[in-house]
Amino acid sequence: MRAIIGALIVFNMVIMAPPVRGESGRELWLRAGGADPVHVVAAGDSAAIELARGELRRGWRGKAGATVTLALGAGAEVRGDGYRLTASGVTANTDLGLLYGVYDLLRRQRTGRPAGEGVSNPAYERRILNHWDNLDGSVERGYGGRSIFWRGGGAALAVTERDRELWAEYGRANASIGINGTVINNVNAAPEVLSDACLGRVQAIADVLRPYGIRVYLSVKFSSPAQLGKLPTSDPLDERVVAWWRERVAEVYRRIPDFGGLLVKANSEGQPGPQDFGRTHAEGANMLADALAPHGGIVMWRAFVYNPGDRDRARQAYAEFMPLDGRFRPNVIVQVKNGPVDFQPREPFNPLFGAMKKTAVMPELQITQEYLGHSIHLVFLGPMWEEFLRSDTYGAGPGSTVARATDGSLFGQEHSAIAGVANIGLDHNWCGHHFAQANWYAFGRLAWDHTLGSREIADEWLRLTFAPPGGNRAKRAQWEDEFLGPVRGMMLRSWEAAIDYMMPLGLHHIFAGVHHYGPGPWYAPEGMRPDWTPPYYHQADAGGIGFDRTRRGSDAVSQYAGPLAALFDDPETCPEMYLLWFHHLPWNHKMKSGRTLWDEIACRYQRGLDQVREFQKVWDRVEPYVDAERFAAVQSKLRRHCRDAQIWKDACLLYFQQFSRMPIPYELERPVQDLEELMKIELPWLHHN
Ligand code: GCW
After folding, report:
1. Out of 38, 50, 183, 648, which could bridge 217 as a Cys pair, Cβ 3.0 to 4.6 Å?
2. Do 196 and 226 belong together in one domain?
């Protein structure tokens, strides 16, 4: 009897409640699992078409035995690598367009959306990842492991089979979301990247990525002619320098005929640049552009410039670049970070957007969470990018959103592009945090279609990444109610939550140290550049808090188009989310809520922390719907996330209270830590001990 019961129990466990298969996250949003037979009729057999065929066979979930036609000749309505979904399959004007169409078709099947008919065109011509990967394999601001491209010089430059497999996996993931370019080395570039030895590896990477429609680009150091070429100068107007760049560029194209171009960080944070020789950014960029033009390459020239000693860092990119508008070659794109300071949790858009009308300008977003909790905090960046892309610059009147000012539709630039600083490394799940994959995904989707909403993107990503395979309609509905809804809600609130517990109401750059993770509004070591220390940004004193960028202050507001300048200049009309970005206000300033500024700040910190605690509950409740491996990984990250949000709240409130001298509103939780202790904590290193 006992044996029978025992057998029944075992039987039950195996048949009735199979343990949810562990998933490592390696497959990203492209998880395998179940395909129906399909016939593919295709126009040719190029590499992209072969990939498209393979994807259909591997993932078809439409009518079993259906025939899918992939055909060229989609007409003028389809632009670039866009495509049209039809009742019988996909049409496009390029092979790559067919591949993109197939990914869309399969995504629709997997997310339960109708197959749909209609045209989809890319918003930006170039949709590029920027890897801040150093040649030694480390990754600047990387939290997902070491570089997938580099591991050192010399013998370590040799390409292995494993490298090729990895790059192909990477290529496929990117192609599936429409990314078509990658800058494979850090903008803080080593001159050696242009050496023959390194170019061999670059060539191998380009060869692997080509079938996926991904072009390779390189970051270069402006002083390369002197450092690598041993010339006496790197002056962009010196003939020897011009000839040196021409030769190196020609060598790159000899190896990689479809090479994309160069990315340059010049005269920024100590990097060399044309100004070292009394030349302008335009003269420097144009010299490189002329070397690239015969080969069809472009220059992406970064506008991330600021000098120590300047009164307001936020004004500098505009001040330096606006006078150069119209002076750049058509194959130069000025690459501008979304905000005027530096990828802070929230910034207003950089005023160069919409203002530079005679120059191609491309947004640079940061996918890696340098200032948003590294790979520890769960922060979905879709809402931030949505807010940014939809911001109205008024550059050509109302409706001149950042998206339209950069995609070529408003100012008709020859090239359009968007870049995202990658969060990818050798970690098994690529990004360190399972939910950080959603940010890679969201970047690709928005680069293709900047009208997508972050809710739609989160929904899609969750379905692709977490939906259990198969299941009947009722099971699926249950999954949608109990997993999808709550987790999507958590994702959509996560960015605002992070702003609240880190830097609410327009506060920015109050991190301790150079790791940009933990709080440090007090941080100001002797001798450090003031614009690298938080007190420069928050300006807290007995009289109040915030950076005065009004007309009476640094006047950064005047860099925005008329209606916005007026809006931002007045604390009564300035959106509260940017209040302390633009204004220095007394602690008892009356907020829209009726609270004083101090009370409002305190409430925001509390609200942010409360949200993260709520996220822990949301996640614990969905345990039955997630495989054990990913469940545990996210649960443990949330625990640290919560602990550190508490540290943020306590540290900032106790520190600012020294100036406000006002009580923390009595209905809020009291701090649970001492400021003195908090000032000694070194996050995130605490976690690594
Ligand atoms: O955000 C800052 C980072 C630097 C980075 C720099 C840049 C690559 O702290 O690590 O350097 O911006 O964007 O150039």
Report:
1. 183
2. yes
